UniProtKB/TrEMBL annotation:
Source organism per UniProt: Ambrosiozyma monospora (Yeast)
Lineage top rank: taxon: Eukaryota
Family membership: Belongs to the DAMOX/DASOX family.
Listed cofactors: FAD
Protein name from the UniProt record: Unnamed protein product
Keyword Flavoprotein among record annotations: yes
Domain FAD dependent oxidoreductase: 53-276
Any single biological process term in GO: D-amino acid catabolic process
GO cellular component terms, semicolon-separated: cytoplasm
Key words of the record: FAD, Flavoprotein, Oxidoreductase
């Protein structure tokens, strides 16, 4: 919720790289049956101030095997522009200097503060947390493979089609139009598949088949997708969800220098960033015993 309201606010300022874009969500008949014939609305529809409209079976596009859906307010983040804006906002404070270092132990981070010894270390290392935390905790961290296609055409909206394909249970269709042009098409959710660094032809064809069925206006005159590039990424998953907490044992063993973990967000790093930061700040405040000015 924190992130949604923040991004809706940032969307009022174009140079942030965040823009408003309608979001359309459909659930297929076989997903509905797989869920025990229960209508399952996402939790965020209950957020105060969110404008949405629900669709029953008579209101969704016909002949596509859809059961229900909704449309609501949404945002799209042009991540390249957003990261530059975010970096500049931090630099303008004049409170820190950017350093690029490789470390093999979190203890090494204590001495990297530009004004001397650090009082607080935040471990936001994503998948690399596997190499920096205890073996017991490292066993909980795993990769989540995601694949996308960037195509030339523009869908104009964001779409998600939630489906249950028993042969490919980790795949579903999402479409996100980029404000700077083109559309991102995904996606999949595959645990521990880091050996698969490219999109295979069969998966590419499945994406094309879904687009043909649900978002055909993305196709060119030949009924194909004009693919600009294919992307494969490995997102930092964790058994039990994100870890955002003070590591009391590490802090005790290192002279009271606080170690705060903040990793394991899977594919929602951008979406959950502001909420996660708020939780980290609360941990910092609790550790310091007063309201820190960060």
């Amino acid at each position: 919720m924190v992130g949604f309201y923040k991004f809706m606010q940032l969307a009022q300022t174009p140079e942030t790289g965040v823009w408003n874009q309608d979001y359309v969500y459909y659930v297929t008949e076989r997903q509905y049956k797989h869920a025990g014939c229960k209508v399952e609305w996402p939790w965020f529809l209950n957020m105060p101030g969110l404008k949405y409209e629900k669709f029953d079976k008579s209101q969704v596009p016909q002949g596509l095997g859809l059961q229900y859906g909704f449309c609501c307010d949404g945002v799209v983040i042009s991540t390249t522009l957003y990261m530059v804006w975010l970096l500049n906002e931090n630099l303008k404070t004049g409170r820190f200097k950017i350093q690029r270092r490789s470390i093999s132990d979190l203890k090494e981070a204590i001495g990297l503060h530009h004004r001397g010894k650090a009082d607080i270390v935040v471990n936001a290392t994503g998948l690399l947390a596997r190499d920096l935390v205890t073996p017991e905790e490292a066993a909980k961290v795993h990769s989540v493979r995601g694949t996308t296609l960037l195509v030339e055409s523009n869908a104009g909206k964001q779409y998600t089609v939630k489906d249950h394909d028993p042969e490919f249970p980790g795949e579903y269709l999402y479409v996100m139009s980029r404000q700077e042009g083109g559309t991102v098409i995904g996606g999949c959710f595959e645990k521990d598949a880091e050996h698969r660094k490219t999109i295979d032809p069969a998966q590419r064809q499945r994406y094309l088949d879904r687009v043909k069925k649900y978002v055909p206006h993305l196709l060119n005159s030949k009924g194909e997708l004009d693919i600009v590039r294919e992307q494969v990424g490995f997102r930092p998953g964790r058994v039990g969800g994100p870890r955002i907490e003070l590591d009391q044992k590490w802090t005790h063993d290192n002279g009271g220098v606080a170690l705060i973990h903040n990793y394991g967000h899977e594919g929602s790093g951008f979406l959950s960033s502001w909420g996660s930061s708020a939780r980290v700040l609360k941990v910092v405040n609790d550790f310091l015993g007063f309201k820190a000015k960060l």
